[in-house]
Amino acid sequence: MSKYEKIVAMWRQFYVKTQADIDLRLNNFKILFAYNSGKIENEAITYHDTREIFENGHVLNFTGDPRTIFEQQNQKLCYEFLKDNIAAKKVLDLPLIKEIHAILTNGTYDERRYIAQGERPGQFKKHDYVTGLNEVGSTPEYVENDLQELLGELEEFKNKDTLKIASYFHARFEYIHPFADGNGRVGRTLLNYYLMTNDHPPMIIFNEDKTNYYSALEAYDRTEALEPMHKFFKHEVERTWEKTLEREQNRSNSSR
Question: What is the reported pLDDT for 237?
């Protein structure tokens, strides 16, 4: 059995079903996820500030851009909001995606987007933004249809290889680029939401690995190749949970 397979088996043995279970298993994960997911696109984010927000609800003596604090506070609020949905295994739909975006981007839109372009948290983009080397992104009039089609594919592929489906879902979501801002943070949150509601361990996409992350996204943008993303995600699952797996194995061995 590979390390990845052992980690998936371990997660399923944890039997994560309730909000209390989620808090128990993601106590440290939620902070590391918020820190790494935020830092991928905002270098000003620090682990110390993120931990202070999650544990104490505030940061002392902060003198940087307030947007940085808003982003990490929003990560905490989104975690709290999603616990009930994850425990209930609520199927992803457009209203939930928009609500996640509203929470994660509240107070973070700059003047140009909010005033000049009329963009709003929780609403699909009104203008034709593109992203990446290959300038991908659905035009505003097709965003809702493209996302609905993607969600339909998730249902169609249900009970198949969960990580492979998640790889497609994430790559396709980022390709569609449905919002004016925050697509990366929302996409990484949706990725873990899908994994957890399908009895699969969530992952941290580590900031140190973002070059490989972007390369996997670009591979899909160019040729719709999924293997680079699938391989990358498997590595991140292993990196996220390898220490927990080691502790569980040591505990098991010592009890024999």
Answer: 98
